[in-house]
């Protein structure tokens, strides 16, 4: 995709929808002897999610699994739209959009597996992580050079913020203009 085309798509984004396992996490689920579950989240991914929210982008977590860890992580990041045990993401999210008067052009979705493909094909901007299922790569607008749970969310948020001009504002706030 041409840079100009990607920038135009990114400028229209108002919502960032994220799959959880394999996107926000490294995809591993660690189970303890008593059934307790652990996931690996990247702290820098979390920090940029807070930043992008300050610049007007709404965040939704949309996952097929159910986990209290996801609710806890979302609470830490001030993400109120947490939708778990969603087996048909396209149908579910289409209903969500209708209720809020949104269009697909305003939505960026990051998914990493075949269950995400129907929604990836519809949104205004689709992205995936470096270690996604191979079927996903040819269908998305952007493939992050980072793995899920290892900086991919940060990378994609930074793309959106740069296209919308909010990255420069944030860079000034933290005094690091050499990275613009």
Give the secondary structure arrangement, pairings included.
Blueprint: H1 3-11, E1 15-18, E2 30-31, E3 37-38, H2 43-54, E4 58-62, H3 68-76, E5 81-83, H4 89-100, E6 107-110, H5 117-120, E7 125-128, E8 142-143, H6 152-164, H7 166-174
Parallel strand pairs: 1-4, 1-6, 4-5, 6-7, 7-8
Antiparallel strand pairs: 2-3
Helix pairs in contact: 1-6, 2-6
Description of the molecule:
With 180 residues, the protein is α/β, with parallel strands linked by helices. The protein has a single domain, classed as HAD superfamily/HAD-like (Rossmann fold). Helix content is 38%, strand content 14%. The protein is built from seven helices and eight strands. Helix 1 (3-11) packs across helix 6. The chain is globular. 36% of the residues are buried. The mean pLDDT is 92.
Describe the structure concisely for a colleague:
This protein has 7 helices and 8 strands; from the N terminus they run H-E-E-E-H-E-H-E-H-E-H-E-E-H-H. It is α/β, with parallel strands linked by helices and 180 residues long. The chain has a 6-stranded parallel sheet with strand order 5-4-1-6-7-8.
């Amino acid at each position: 995709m041409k840079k100009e085309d990607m920038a135009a798509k990114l400028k229209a984004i108002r919502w960032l929808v994220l799959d959880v396992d394999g996107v926000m996490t490294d995809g591993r689920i660690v189970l303890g002897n008593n059934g307790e579950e652990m996931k690996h989240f990247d702290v820098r991914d979390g920090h940029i999610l807070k930043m992008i929210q300050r610049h007007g982008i709404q965040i939704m977590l949309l996952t097929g699994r159910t986990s209290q860890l996801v609710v806890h992580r979302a609470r830490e990041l001030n993400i109120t739209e947490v939708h778990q045990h969603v087996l048909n993401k396209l149908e579910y999210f289409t209903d969500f959009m209708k209720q809020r008067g949104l269009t697909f052009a305003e939505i960026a979705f990051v998914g990493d597996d075949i269950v995400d493909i129907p929604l990836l094909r519809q949104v205004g901007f689709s992205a995936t992580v470096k270690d996604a299922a191979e079927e996903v790569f040819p269908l998305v607008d952007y493939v992050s050079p980072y793995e899920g749970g290892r900086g991919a969310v940060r990378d994609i948020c930074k793309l959106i913020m740069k296209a919308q001009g909010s990255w420069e504002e944030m860079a000034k706030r933290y005094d690091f203009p050499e990275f613009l």
